[in-house]
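Folding follows sequence. Below is one example:
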Amino acid sequence: MITYITVATAVFALVAAGLTLAPEASAATAAELAKQVDALKSDVAEVGKEYDAAYWQLNETEVRLEGLNNSLVETEAKLEVAELAFADRAYAMYTRNDDDLLSFILGSTSFSEFATRVELFERLTRSDAEAIADVKELRAAYEAEAAAVEREVAQQEADVAALQDKKAALDRRLASKQSEYERLKAQLAAAVAREAASGRRTYVPPVSPNGMVFPVAGGNYYSDTWGASRSGGRRRHKGTDIMAPRGTPVVATLSGSVRAKTGGLGGKTIWLTADNGLSFYYAHLDSFSVTGGRVSAGQQIGTVGNTGHASGGAHHLHYEIHPGGGAAVNPYPYLRQMQ
């Protein structure tokens, strides 16, 4: 059994490129190490923000494309009806005997009847013209919408490529800094313990709410995406996505009982029911460390992956909090306090 309870958990996460510890790292104060952590987090956050921007650009493209496709289907249906109507009118015009029509008009027995028959002829002529105009208008609209769909598909392909590039950059940054993260975490924990023993404290780690432990024990990036659109606007995000390298340990936020499941949108998932009544949902895991029974706060329960509908996307932990086992609430404020 591996336990990952740290002094400041994910505050130590996200060690970034180009920043190294002082030669006398072991002599650095906790406050100095904490400042380095803040700088490292900011560096990785820039890469994370670029990934976020690329993700939302793609999402907006998907929303526009879906709208254009829906409009195109409607216009196509209208065009089909108009073309059928025009075909009927064209057949009627082709088979019409003008001599019969002239006889029909001239066969009037009164001026009033003559005027009525002429008006009827004019209406038929206008109807023919309107049928032609309807077809022309709808065909022009259909061609314009089809061209717009084609442009949007090209934009979607470009946005997908951009997102993949940003994903790869974020994955590389996080993965390459994992060992530095572990080293810095240990040094900061040692510094905090050393200062606590001497009575001279330069840094006091934040106190997590209710003793909660940050769910990802490694370099990570996350932002507040509560309520944001997903799947082209068809659903809303009910958690926080914590980006981390594949295989990064995922730990129990609080002590309680767990049950694991495989399948559905979440892929490999774990529900953790804490002793205080809070429930936590972990999704897209790469592997399970436990599949049921009791766990302690900070104990490893799985690893970060991208299973389920996240397959092919960035490795991350989808994390939800359900007070009393009820509806989900925004985890972001809780996660910030856990750091």
